[in-house]
User: What shape does this take?
Amino acid sequence: MAVRKLIGFNLLTGVVLGVIGYIVGWQLGHIPTGESIEYFGDTGQNDIAMFCAYMLGVIGFLVGLGFANYPIQRMLGKPPSLREKETGGWTRYFGLCTDHKVVGIQYLVGIGVFIFIGGLNAMLIRYELLTPNQHLANGNNYLTLVGLHGTMMMGMMTSGILGPVANYFVPIMIGARRMAFPRIEALTFWLLMAAGVILMTALAFGGFPTGWTGYEPLADQANMGMDAYICFFALVGLSMCLLGLNMLATVITMRAPGMAWGRLPMFVWGVVSTAILMLLAAPVLFSALLMETLDRTAQTGFFNVQAGGSPYLWENLFWIFGHPEVYILALPGMGILLEILPVFSRKPVWGYRLAVTGMLGISLLSWLVWQHHIFVSGINADLRPFYMLSTELISLPTGFIFICALGTLWAGRIRLTVPMLFCLAWIFNFLIGGLSGVFLSDVPSDVTTHGSFFSMAHFHYTIMGGLIFTFFAAIYYWVPKMTGYEINEFWGKVHFWSMFIAFNSTFGPLLVIGFLGQPRRVVTYPGFLQGANEWVSVSAFVLGASMIVFLVNFVYSQVIARVPAAANPWGSKSIEFQLPSPVPVHNFDRIPTFGPDPYPYGEGAEAAPSGPVIAPARHTK
Amino acid sequence: MWSSWSHGRRVAVLTIVVTIILLPIMIFVLGPNMPPGKNTDVGKGQVFDNTVLLIVMTPFTAFILTYLVYAAIAFRVPDSDSREGAHIRGHMRSQIIWLVTTTAAVLFLAIFGTAELLSTGAGGGQGPKPITKPGGTVLPVQVIGQQWEFTFRYPTYGGVETAQLEIPVGTQIAFHVTSLDAIHSFWAYQLGVKADANPGVDNVAYVKPKTTRSFDIRCAELCGLWHGYMFDTGYVVTQSQFTTWIAQQQRLYAKSMKDLPPFAYTYAPDPTFRAG
Assistant: This one.
């Protein structure tokens, strides 16, 4: 039986078939001969073999995990089913499982590992920048560190909240027993894991020099490490697109009786506005990467000036994806913020419709701003006033989120629990991030700040200060529900305060360093900036240490101490906290119904229960 | 008096006090020290622009931070308190006030930024067909980015190519920025100039230096292995110093001039090659 389990379709067989596929692909890629291969023949570079190896490797991995089984069985005439391996102990977590709660926990751990690696890269970058001269890495390794940090974080955090939190809680929040497409849900997770491993293999092939933006024609010059970047983002794009599709389909079609659009929890609205962007932005990235793949293998010239192409094409396509991408990172955080603030202020969300307008408005406007990333590139100089206006207009819907968050605090009874502290920190961090963004949106000011540490600090304020802080709020708030075990609150507060102070001590001075003229992604800088850079590096190490505090506390609480969590430790009135911890396999015995009020908090609200109603179980079946 | 005030009045008064404290700091302390310094016409414009941004942001920042701190202190209860908060779902008037003030600020900033941009070009790269062209005589200077250095050509001085950048003070300069390989970005920090160097593109940026001084040149777009080392120092010099210097350069490079391609706004780069 044990042997059967081992060689059944699981992570182990996936890895074995993945490696076999990789080797077969590598060999296949060497078969075609011709001018394009000879061109690279004497350099030891063969991009065709590299792409074949990655592609067959991923296919082998997915087949090994069992993704081909069901389609084959259907072709052989087996009746349709929506469930696979939903019961069966811990082995569920190491393979294809269609239980959305298992996928949520897989995401949490899997993404956590890769984000940890991305964080280590950041520590090494800051170690290098302790002195004005290069001392740790050679130039190529340093650029690879920068690229790995940026690409890993950007790729993984796109699903950082939608993966673990939304997969787990969106079906529960709308009163469903599963996602609309459970197998696609599992597929998005395993695609992301394959992508992460592929990106790490860049290290074995000389790394890549382009940072996360992959600008052409530098990317065309780069050696085979660049192929890892392309395959990584292609798989992340595929995963994002499917995840967005799945979320939208779930929320549109699977809402329980009474769950009208005007009653969706704020978190679900955050997920919906993100999912729209994911579904539409990822294909743009995918197509750009396809062009780049063809440029590198079939010697096409999409981005090659001599062949009639243009590097502007990459810049445009990348940022048409890239700007919605940063809102894909920011919007789930806003959803979590407005979901958690009412619980700990004991008040309904202030301005529900305004907040929804804000999120959807950001979703819409994020498509109209991408050229603010290339204000000084010389393309469309006459369109800059338009992009300046559209970029600054994004402050309006973002302002809605701020006023709704602040309004929710007003005259509440605020409990400064750990999730609440992280949410309040969002307001501060995102304010700084938004204000620094105004400098970048304004062309005269952008001339100095573009491409400097200022813009780098700006997006760390919005993404780390916005997304990662709410990500931790979500972990402290929801993980006891997911696993059934408490997280130690005292060490949670130690984590919060050390992280909040170290974060601002890191990125606040970086805004100033940028103003003083230090460009991004440099390995050297002027001597007079050394003091400031040392300060930032030490703060960054403290920030890293605060993550260790979190990690130790999290692992200790969940694996060793294992204090059972109460079903509803926060006094929350949303539906997931009316269920036992952890949530049982099919969530509800009977589909719940929803009253008119998603946030029945506040004095007098108890008198007329109007929130979700879970009918008692029918024990007849 | 304080204790008899409502929460709303207290936050309003605190916001006004904080704004009144912060505004002079923004106008008189931070503003004049904003980058990139008033060494050129576009630099001066950018400093003014940055100062205006700071001033517009101040009341909003003061309001949000004051409100946040006030709410976290005044409305805080112990974790054990199980009472509910006030049952408020929104307030139409504050929503409208917020919408109107933020819209006004955003529209003002967009119009102001556009006016600033159109008056001088703000020192940014404007591509081959600049929308803002200064009048009068212009000294064209070509900046050629390549992995990993900038070189400079002076078309009005026989197209001489130098490894050092010197420009005369008080003269309208037009930088024509292009690249031979990857994308670079020509950033002359103290001049307030930044323009991407794209292969096959003539990217024009205008500037008029006001004082003689040195300035830092850095590449501001990741361009490969030695990107971090792609920096240089340029000089704004007097007209007579410039005339002497450029004549000296012409003599110095007279022999190598015949090996250079004739001056053009873009050059055909080398075939794609593979580098780190």
In short: The beta strands of chain B are 138-146, 149-154, 160-162, 166-168, 172-179, 184-188, 193-197, 203-207, 213-219, 231-237. Residues 272-276 of chain B have pLDDT under 50 and may be disordered.
